[in-house]
Specification:
six-stranded antiparallel beta sheet, 5 helices, about 55% helix, elongated
Length: about 190
């Protein structure tokens, strides 16, 4: 297969993975709160590193040819950075997304066996922008955020967030993560 045909095939795959990522993130991904370093290591970094290595092995001939035919240290450094960024994006959208979906499923399976717990969190800010509306709050002494609707912004956007707490009903999953069943603003 020629390099141009292979590039077109790779572009279609990349666009499909990006589209799937957006659909999952917007419509399917569950709302969770919590934090644990193990998530960053096992669900983000290891899959990305593994994906970069897999992509490097898959495209080894292309990469060695590309570096061998281009002269100059600056051009080779530029190519290395460019291919590394491509590798990270590919790895995140493929291996990272598979790891995230698997994590969400296992975490949800664990959480549905747990009882619901209520948390009262300090509201830091209610934010409105053209791209998204969000409420910022603290959970377990760390900042978190939820995307909120336009109606929520109409109801609370002009009010002082310090006068409210966020009541969250959630079930404990794995590694200090909680699946959010529902939440609401409450006057202090």
């Amino acid at each position: 297969m020629s390099e141009k045909k292979l590039d077109k095939k790779h572009a279609r795959i990349a666009i499909s993975m990006l589209l799937f990522f957006v659909i999952y993130s917007v419509f399917i991904e569950p709302k969770t709160i919590g934090n644990d370093i193990r998530y960053s290591i096992f669900i983000i970094w290891i899959p990305i590193i593994f994906g970069i290595l897999a992509l490097g092995i898959y495209r080894w001939k292309f990469l060695t040819n590309s570096f061998a035919t281009n002269k100059g240290l600056i051009l080779k450094m530029y190519l290395a950075v460019f291919y590394l960024i491509q590798g990270v994006l590919f790895s995140f959208l493929s291996f990272g997304q598979m790891a995230k979906m698997s994590w969400d499923y296992v975490n949800y399976s664990k959480a549905k066996l747990s009882t619901t717990v209520t948390f009262h969190c300090e509201v830091l800010n209610v934010w409105k922008s053209k791209k998204s509306n969000q409420i910022y709050f603290t959970f377990d002494h760390k900042p978190e955020l939820f995307n909120v609707s336009n109606q929520f912004i109409k109801d609370y956007g002009n009010k002082n967030p310090k006068n409210y707490t966020l009541e969250i009903n959630a079930r404990k999953g794995l590694w200090n993560y909680y699946f959010v069943d529902n939440w609401k603003m409450k006057m202090k």
